[in-house]
């Protein structure tokens, strides 16, 4: 989440550079502005979205299902 007091700066910016790993945004090359992002959303963004995230879990789900049947 970004501080609502920063919204006017975002609206006026010509360029925004987002660094998801460090959770910062730079407007027009200025100082970084921090934002909060929970770890699951961060994983979705860095990993390409929800479907790739789910696809990465298929093997673990299959192992879990097999263990439940045993």
Task: Please give the structural blueprint.
Layout (H helix, E strand, L loop, with lengths): L6 H6 L3 E4 L4 E4 L4 E3 L4 H9 L2 H7 L1 H12 L1
Antiparallel strand pairs: 1-2, 2-3
Can you walk through the features of this model?
Strand 2 and strand 3 (32-34) form a beta hairpin. This protein has four helices and three strands. It is an alpha+beta fold and 70 residues long. The protein has helices spanning 7-12, 39-47, 50-56, 58-69, and strands spanning 16-19, 24-27, 32-34. A three-stranded antiparallel β-sheet has the order 1-2-3, with no helix packed on it. The chain has two domains: 1-37, no CATH class; 38-70, no CATH class.
Brief description of this entry?
The protein folds into two domains: 1-37, no CATH class; 38-70, no CATH class. Helix content is 49%, strand content 16%.
Q: Give the tally of structural domains.
A: 2
Q: What does the average pLDDT come to?
A: 90
* Unreliable spans: none
Query: Which descriptor suits the 3D outline?
Result: rod-shaped
Structural class: alpha+beta
Using the CA coordinates, give the radius of gyration: 18 Å
Largest sheet: 3 strands, antiparallel
Number of strands: 3
Q: Order of strands across the widest beta sheet?
A: 1-2-3
Task: Quickly count the helices.
Answer: 4
The helix/strand order is: HEEEHHH
Ends apart, CA distance between termini: 45 Å
Strand content range: 15-25%
Helical proportion, percent range = 40-55%
């Amino acid at each position: 989440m970004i501080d609502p007091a920063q919204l006017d700066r975002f609206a006026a910016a010509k360029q925004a550079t987002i660094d998801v790993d460090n959770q910062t945004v730079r407007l027009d090359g200025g100082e970084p502005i921090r934002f909060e992002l929970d770890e699951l959303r961060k994983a979705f963004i860095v990993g390409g979205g929800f479907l790739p995230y789910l696809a990465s879990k298929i093997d673990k789900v299959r192992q879990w299902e097999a263990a439940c049947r045993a």
